[in-house]
Design brief:
9-stranded mixed sheet; 2 domains; two-stranded antiparallel ribbon; Polycystin domain-containing protein; transmembrane; membrane; signal; 13 strands; alpha+beta
Length: 391
Amino acid sequence: MFVSAVCLFLVLVDVIVNNWEFNDLVGNARTLLTPVLNVASQQDLTNAFTFADGSSLDSVSSVGLYMINYTLQTIHAHDSNMYVLSADSYTVDSPVNDICGMLVQSYRLANTSSSLVSLGVVQDGIEYVRGTAMTNLLQGTRPIPPPGSNHDALVSFGYLPSRIDADMRLTTPVKVPPPESVAFANVSMYRFCARAYCTGCDPTIELGQDLCTVQTSFSPTTRTLVVHSSVAIAGHSRVLGMMMTRSAVSVGSLYVRALCVLFGLAAFATSHKTVRWTDSVSLSSWYKKLVYIAAPAQYRYQCRSVDFSYFCFNSDVFVVGYVVAVLLDEKACNLYSRTLHKWNDETIDSWTSRWVFVRIAAMNFRWVWLNCFLVKVIKVLANVLSTARYT
């Protein structure tokens, strides 16, 4: 009974809480788009924000610019092609999950008459991988290339390009301090990190909001605002969100999963009910006859030999349907759960982190039905290939 309750709980969490349509509708992730709601192009970005020397749009590759343009165009399209998903919040309590340090840069101000300036930083790069999880486990990860290795050196070590990132950070206005003086301020830093696994592919965008304490100074000679330090406020919660492509495949997966759950609940509940025959003498009035036709008396007889988890894992219709739903939603599920795990693994234990763990467990629990499906396929093949028959 306990196993059935756990299985039902994880399935319901996956269908309701990990539902992209429901999350996009009632989630609060669109607040993370605030800095760029009036910024629709690269020129608008340059006009609205002061970017750091060496970490501006001019220093980004063509692929990085494409991903930034894609992010802005998608935000301003306001169509049904993208999900904007909330992904909970995570307490920042150590340097491990403190990402405010990227703001430590020099910013050349075009207009020194303004007392407020919004800062921006953009960095892009390529992630390289070597081998697979199995080969790295059996053969190890050595030799390790030296820091600063270029593309040719990494390829010679067996590494291959796997992912392209374009990470943009934008802040709320910072007050320019008086010349030759140091000032401290708390600013909100918004993150727009686009990731793609091939050149020109539609990226998945990680959204975030952090509260940072920055130490700044201003040099009127060079018209440069320098951020000497930038650290996250300990105990503050980092808000996380994601933008993912909405397609017919992802929407179809939600419908299939919902139908499978309804089928499982209805079929299992029906199998535990019986209807007792009633003779015409007991139906003495037309009212009782009408009620009996519409809703006959049902008497529940509990069957302990087959519980709900056993039914879900053995029903051919439920298993095949749920496997189809899992495979249709595999890409979105892996990207979303990986992002949740990354940030949840680096935060302190709390009720929020435990709830995120339950959400991740519910997404991983989907793969149980793939194993059940493979077992059913093996049983069918064994039955076809076997020469013996039993009755």
